Structure formats: structure tokens, C-alpha cells
Amino acid sequence: MLLTLILIGLYLSHSSKSSSFFPSSLMASRFLSHPEPNQVLFEESSCVRKVILNRPHKLNSLTYEMISQILRNLEVYEKDPIVKLLILKGQGKTFCAGGDVVGMVLSINEGHWSFGASFYKKQLTLDYLLATSTKPLVSLINGIIMGGGAGLSMNSMFRVVTENTVFAMPEGQIGLFPDVGASYFLSRLPGYFGEYLGLTGARLDGKEMLACGLATHFVLSKDLLLLENALSEVASSDASTISRVISGFSSKISLKKESAYRRLETINKCFSRRTVEEILSMLVTMENEAANGDNKWIIQAISSMKSASPTSLKIFLKLIREGRTKELKDCLIQDYTIACHMFRRTFNPDFIEGSRAKLFEKGQQPKWEPSKLELVRDDFVNQYFEKVDDADWEYLELPARSNLAKTWESKL
Question: What spatial distance separates the first Cα and last Cα of the chain, rounded to whole Å?
């Protein structure tokens, strides 16, 4: 199922408290002592540098080593005056499904929840540096893009999608939340479409991504290599020049009749409500009023929200509402704080419980704590936004950057 593929792509963590569903220490030691070679490839072509995620057998999920290598090379590229353009792509049929589940769980099971925090800190730092890079970045998104993959690419200047692209942020299903800056890039979508995507984990295809603004260009997959070759000849960092090259390979789109984006007016009526409870109530009302055959997306939205962690839903709604007026840097800093609370199970075990039920024992319904939306009070949610009470913990510090995140507008 596609949902299984989506969940594989979520970068998981867990506290130092072991549980029977995690692999043994012996297995973990063997895994961690044999890192895979060539997890990310780097290619040079005149004034262009390519970063290629190279774990197709793992849906190009991100490891600590991959993130570290990209950070090192990015620093070199930014200092090199010859480099004018960066290209980010995934090897095989997937762009990037997120972080490496197995590696993360094994490493933390071997040590402490802070192992997860260290991985996450480095990942968010990379997301920020890519978004604010002094060199224009073109993300060629062909295939699945979830979680950490969205963090790498959704704030790049150019985001090229194809008919094979599938986007979703379903983290609430495992007790996490749409993070890696989602409260920034989803909050900037038309109306309340970002709330819809984050609260329901709904999937979008490439055409829908272009229509709502998550993508800047739509190119048929058969033309992607031709585009890449053309971009490899670019000798300028001028955004208009790069956009013209991409536009030369772009195709016109037409949304499917059943596309949720065609229901934006209804989505706005529902997801503009103040609380998650009110959103769900309005969805139920709209389901009853919808014409025959036009309520499938509503039924799916209701089902998804009812199966997600109530705490995660309320955290994300607060995040995206605040994210509308924040810069990317502040959104990433807040993501880090909330995630650390979840890694160490400060207030509830939903993240660990969700990964157990959905990923390790597969197909089970997690036992959320609290179990119902009405039991998740505002003061409980607010705690996740506060400092972690740990002597060694510090807020995420991101490097000073003069180049704020700049993206090109969608080309319909």
C-alpha cells in the first residue's frame, strides 16, 4: 500500500527506554558498524553541481551520513565562484521518502533519545541552508516525496514535478506532526489548503502540487533527463534564465475532476475553523450536504483525522496558524523543540506508540494518550512549544544567513 511507503519515509526516533518491538542490541551494533557506501552522489558539470540521493532500495531515505556529506559539499559549492546552479534529485523512482527509519530507531535504541535529537538538528540545519543557499537550487521531484524529502526541497527556488510525483505529510498517523518547516511552506498555500494537507495527510499528484503552488513547474518524466542536460549547460545564477530553461520543457496540466484542490472553497469553509473539533464537525456537515459522489474526499479526510493522534493534530493546527506570520528559521526552531519532547516522551508516548503499531507490528491502531480530541487541552498542547527540561538540551541554533528563503512562483 502507498500508505506503507509513506510511513517508511518518516524519520523516527525513540527514547532510551527499550521496548520489545525494537531490534536487539546485537542487531543494532551490526547495522551501525556497516554503513552503506555511496549513499549520496555528487556530480560536476561546468558551472552546475548535482546532489543525487542514492538509496533507491530504501526510497532514498536520509541517513546521518548523507546529511553530513551534503552539508560538507554545500559549503564548498557556496564558496566556489564557478558554481552557478545546484540540482537536487533522487536515484531511481523515488525522490525522497524522508529519514531512515531503521537507522534512527536502531541508533537510539543503542543509546539515548538525544541521538535522535542530534540527527534531527543536523537535518533541520541542512533544510535551512538549502532554502537560503546563495546558489539557486532546482529540485527534480520524480516519484514519492514525503517528510524529510519535503524539508529538503519545498523551499528550493525551483521545484519540478512529474506525473509520477506523489506528495503527502501523514506524520500524524504515527503520533508525529508535519515538520521540517511544513508550518512555513504549507501555511503559504492558497486559503486553508495547508491545514487540509497537514491534518489529513492527503496525497497530491504532481499536477495538484503545481496548481496549489508546492511545485513551480510540471515536466513529463520522459523529458526530465533532457531538462537535466539543458540545466547542466547553464552558466548563470539568474533566476529568470533558469526558469526559461525549465519552462522550455514544461507541459500544461489539467486537474482530475475528483481533485481535492477543485474543492478549495469547501476546504476553506471547513479548515478555517478555530479548533480541530470544529473542523471535524464542519466536515461532517459538509459530507451530509454534498451531492452524490462528491463527498469521497470528505469521507477520507474524516477517517484520516479520526485515526491520527489527537495530540499531533492539535499541535500541527497551532503550528501552522503561527507559521503564517513566522520566517522559515523560526518554524524550524519550533519544530526541533516539539520533536525533542516527542522523542523523549515528555508528555505522552504517542510517537513511540504510533511507530510500534504502524511500522513494527504494522496495521494496528495505536492507543493514543489522550485518546480523544476533547481530552487534549490547550495547556497540554502549549507545553510542547516550551523549552525541554534537560540540563544538556539547548534550542536549535541555525547559522546566520543573508540570503532569505526565495522561491519561484508556480508556472501554470
Answer: 31
pLDDT at 357: 85
Query: Which residues are part of the catalytic machinery?
Result: 99, 148, 171, 179
Per the CB < 8 A criterion, the answer to whether 155 and 294 are in contact is no
- Which stretches does DSSP call E strand in 206-343? 217-218
- pLDDT, tens only, 310-343: 999 999 999 999 999 999 999 999 999 999 999 8
- With a CB cutoff of 8 Å and minimum separation 6, the contacts of 54 are 38, 39, 40, 41, 60, 91
Contact 29, 141 (CB under 8 A): no
pLDDT at 359: 78
Listed residue (289, 353, 292, 330) closest to 17, CA to CA: 353
48-53 β-sheet, strand order: 40-45, 48-53, 85-90, 137-141, 158-161, 217-218
At 17, the amino acid letter reads: K
pTM of the model: 0.90
State the average pLDDT over residues 339-359: 88
* Rounded CA Rg of the chain: 21
pLDDT of the residue at 353? 87
Beta strands in 27-165 (DSSP E): 40-45, 48-53, 85-90, 137-141, 144-146, 158-161
